[in-house]
């Protein structure tokens, strides 16, 4: 599952890099290991921009996954499920309610927490519920304070034997990775970033 979470991170990066492409079937299908290819993925905030983009990308790149759109707005959730089609469903859940979270996480293999804003969150309720239910966890946190609180759960996550990844979104996750990649290009003596552009433009 830890390897799957890292593959998911790569899939998210691919999704945002290709967000402006045509709505066609993608030839770059991600082949997941057999034991996780039919996993159930809960995306909290799945009707928002980041969560919705994540859901669409996963359904395109990993069509065997079962995607659950989690949120409080059933109308928006139903609309997203209709857009995703096969292997998707909506689950009404309140991320501020531990009982609601734990009930929704039952039977889920991985929860993607995209229900911001993280700047206003005083507790890591989703991560707490993930640890309690032994559900793999990844968030797209863009707030340093939240990130520090999330990292304080490391030992609990280890005891629960689950992977838990924080700040895995565009900022600071993907953007920092891109910056590091560009720095390596310049450090290697290249005088342009054409290689980086060519690689990110591949379909």
Descriptive notes:
- This protein is 48% helix and 13% strand.
- The chain is built from nine helices and six strands, in the order H-E-H-E-H-E-H-E-H-E-H-H-E-H-H.
- The protein has a six-stranded parallel sheet, with helices on both faces.
- Strand 2 (66-71), helix 3 and strand 3 (88-92) form a beta-alpha-beta unit.
- Helix 1 (2-17) packs across helix 2 and helix 4 packs across helix 5.
- The chain starts with a helix and ends with a helix.
- The model is unreliable at 19-24 and 190-200 (pLDDT under 50).
Give the proportion of residues in helices. Answer: 40-55%
Strand content: 5-15%
CATH class of the largest domain: Alpha Beta
User: What is the CATH H-level superfamily of the largest domain?
Assistant: NAD(P)-binding Rossmann-like Domain
Strand order of the biggest β-sheet:
3-2-1-4-5-6
Question: How does the overall form come out from the CA principal axes?
Answer: globular
What is the oligomeric state here?
single chain
Mean pLDDT: 81
The overall strand count is: 6
Find the CATH topology of the largest domain.
Rossmann fold
**What is the overall number of helices?**
9
What is the ordering of alpha helices and beta strands? HEHEHEHEHEHHEHH
Amino- and carboxy-terminal Cα gap: 27 Å
Mind describing the biggest β-sheet? 6 strands, parallel
What would you report as the Rg, rounded to the nearest angstrom? 17 Å
Please, how many domains?
A: 2
Task: Just name the CATH architecture of the largest domain.
Answer: 3-Layer(aba) Sandwich
Helix/strand class? alpha/beta
Stretches where pLDDT is under 50 for at least 5 consecutive residues are 19-24, 190-200
